[in-house]
Recover the amino acids of this structure.
């Protein structure tokens, strides 16, 4: 990603707006008793568009802001979201996004990863309660929501950050098999 | 760079864990608090629309169940009215005549939920009243249905309420009228199912009994909650579970998934 002051300002606005919308809107609506979590999808989309470092920094910033707004111990949210952004960016650097279904699918996987990550951080810090099996259901439904919400998020961000996105290399044409001895 | 961010996260986590809100969080929270309030109000119609769909799905299945419950409730209502009148008289006699919802000696501050944690492992909300309104850490929080949680952090204009469904929550409670006492603990991921743990296995607890805060005080130690705040109703109380694990299941009166207006009980003596 080519970072100019204008693009940087857009990235900051995207992260701030994303976190604000999450805590004031998405966390407070429910379908099938589950609230969507768009932050992992947003951070994964930024990673897919801008690469691993963009994803990691955006994830770290979003996590810090989230922890500040919720007055939670700082660092837990940023650790999980920076990993999410970094892994999404790494995917983009290693593989080609060949299908339109891939970004939303990766957003769903990112949400699954992030929710499990938040649980792992909590377990690391000490956890003394019974865990309902409904947690698994909630996490899976959140991932499904992320699949459907990830699509517009990815396309919206792609449009918003178009000037900064490094063009993807052209698809490699499949090599002809070399026939030995021919 | 990546290593720096990861190390930074761990350092922040180590420094801030268990310390409550620090200067940075207070500052950020103070800056964003008005923005959150405006966003919250602006998005309320959209939120209500989506939540309406969710509730409609539920209502269809619960219609017949509710009709049966309504008949039973009507019968109980007559008895409750008599008990309420009697209770009012007794309260007057004791000089504790208040509205009934707020325990004696407490004032209340009404706040609106502005922010909710998106993570399934936490049950925290932020409300738009803070230390400037008289809210302090450890103040109990209720809504029209019953106990909701406790204030765990405050800034000038906002406060963090940790709900009774959060994994860090533990509320000393008693079953009425059986009198069996225990600790209400959550089942993480299911805010509709609390566990009343460490109960006396010799006293039988039955389905439908009410659970209220115990509000004890002993040798300088005290419960953070005043006595007799309604918490919920026993929904599952098998003899095996009571004898082997000394616990019963409780459904909270308050709908912890859909909270809007909350009352923080300020002042008052604890326990």
């Amino acid at each position: 990603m080519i970072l100019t002051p204008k693009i940087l300002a857009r990235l900051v606005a995207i992260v701030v707006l994303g976190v604000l919308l999450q805590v004031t809107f998405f966390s407070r609506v429910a379908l099938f008793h589950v609230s969507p979590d768009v932050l992992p999808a947003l951070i994964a989309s930024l990673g897919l568009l801008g690469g691993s470092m963009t994803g990691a920094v955006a994830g770290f910033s979003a996590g810090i802001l989230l922890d500040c707004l919720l007055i939670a111990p700082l660092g837990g949210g940023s650790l999980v979201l920076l990993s999410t952004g970094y892994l999404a960016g790494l995917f983009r650097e290693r593989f080609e996004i060949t299908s339109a279904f891939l970004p939303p699918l990766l957003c769903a996987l990112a949400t699954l990863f992030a929710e499990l990550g938040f649980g792992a951080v909590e377990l690391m810090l000490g956890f003394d309660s019974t865990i309902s099996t409904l947690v698994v259901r909630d996490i899976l439904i959140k991932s499904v929501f992320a699949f459907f919400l990830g699509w517009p998020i990815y396309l919206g961000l792609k449009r918003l950050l178009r000037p900064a996105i490094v063009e993807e290399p052209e698809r490699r044409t499949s090599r002809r098999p070399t026939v030995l001895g021919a | 760079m990546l290593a720096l961010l990861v190390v930074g996260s761990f350092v922040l986590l180590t420094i801030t864990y268990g310390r409550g809100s620090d200067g940075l969080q207070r500052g950020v929270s103070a800056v964003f608090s008005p923005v959150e309030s405006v966003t919250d109000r602006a998005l309320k119609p959209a939120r209500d629309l989506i939540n309406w769909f969710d509730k409609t799905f539920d209502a269809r299945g619960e219609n017949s169940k509710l009709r049966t419950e309504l008949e039973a409730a009507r019968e109980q209502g007559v008895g409750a009215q008599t008990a309420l009148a009697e209770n009012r008289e007794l309260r007057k006699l004791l000089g504790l005549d208040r509205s009934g919802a707020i325990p004696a000696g407490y004032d209340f501050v009404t706040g609106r939920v502005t922010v909710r944690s998106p993570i399934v492992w936490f049950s925290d909300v932020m409300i738009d009243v803070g230390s400037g309104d008289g809210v302090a850490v450890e103040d109990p929080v209720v809504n029209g249905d019953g106990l909701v949680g406790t204030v765990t952090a405050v800034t000038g204009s906002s406060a963090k309420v940790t709900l009774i469904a959060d994994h860090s929550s533990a509320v000393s409670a008693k079953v009425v009228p059986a009198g069996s006492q225990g600790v209400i603990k959550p089942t993480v991921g299911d805010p509709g199912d609390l566990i009343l743990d460490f109960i006396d296995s010799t006293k039988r607890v039955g389905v439908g009994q009410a659970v209220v805060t115990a509000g004890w005080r002993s040798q300088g130690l005290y419960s953070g909650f005043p006595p007799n705040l309604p918490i919920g109703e026993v929904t599952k109380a098998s003899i095996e579970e009571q004898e082997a694990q000394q616990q019963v299941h409780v459904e909270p009166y308050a709908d912890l998934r859909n909270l809007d207006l909350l009352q923080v009980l300020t002042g008052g003596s604890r326990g």
About this structure: Chain A has one domain: 5-162. Helices of chain A lie at 5-24, 39-50, 52-69, 76-94, 102-125, 134-160. Chain A has six helices and one strand. Chain A has a mean pLDDT of 87.
